[in-house]
Amino acid sequence: MDSPMKKPIVAVFDFDGTLTYADSFLPFLRHQSGFLNFWIGTTLLSPFVLLQAIGVISNSKAKEKFLKFFLGGRKPEDLEAISQSFVKTRLPWLMNPDAIEKMEWHRREGHQLILLSASPELYLQHWTQANHFQGLLGTRLELSDGKITGRIDGKNCHGREKVERLKEHLNDLGDYEIYSYGDSRSDRHVLELCAHPGFRSFGKGFGYRIQAMWSFLTCLV
What we know:
By secondary structure, this protein is an alpha/beta fold. It has helices spanning about 15-20, 25-35, 35-55, 60-70, 80-90, 95-110, 120-130, 160-170, 190, 205-220, and strands at about 10-15, 110-120, 135-145, 145-155, 175-180, 195-200. Helix content is about 50%, strand content about 20%. Helix 2 (about 25-35) runs antiparallel to helix 3 and helix 3 (about 35-55) packs antiparallel against helix 4.
C-alpha cells in the first residue's frame, strides 16, 4: 500500500515581538523622519495612542494617524533607499537571535518561510528579500496618484485578518503542515489553526524584557 503523501511544511512568523524584540514600526518612522520631527510627531499623536489603548479607536485608525503624519504625500520609490538603510543599520538592533536561529533551522530543513505582520510591507519587503522568505503578508499602504495617502489599502494585517491573508496566500491551509510563531493576542487566530503553534517561544523572563526595552529605545535615539 502506498504511504500517504507528505504535506509541504510552512513556517509562518509574526515579525514585531517575535522575530524582533519589540515593535519595528516606530523605529522605522524615527529613521525616516529624523530625531526632532519624530519626537514632535509622536507627541502630537500621543492622544490617539491613548484612545486606542482604552478601546475608543481601533488599532487600524491609530496606525493611519501615524502613516498620514509621517508618510502622507510621499512616493514609495522615494522611500526605497530609506527602507533599505533602516533594514541594514537600525533593524539589526531589534532582531532576536533565538528567533533567527529557529528561522534558519526551518530554512535548512527546506521549509517555506512566510512573514505575516501588521507592519507595513513598505520596509518589510527588503528584510524578507534579504532573508529569502517565500512570502510576505503585511499591511499595505493606499496610494493615490503614486503617493501614500496615509490610509491602509484593504485591511490592517492584524488579528483575524492575518488568517484571511494566510488563506488567500496558501489557498487551502489543510494542504500544508504549518508551524506558526507569534507573541500577542492578534496572533492567536493563526496559531489556533496550525499543527505546531509557538506562542511567545522566544521571549521569557526579566532579562528578555530588559533586552527588549534596551533594543527598542536604542532604535529611537
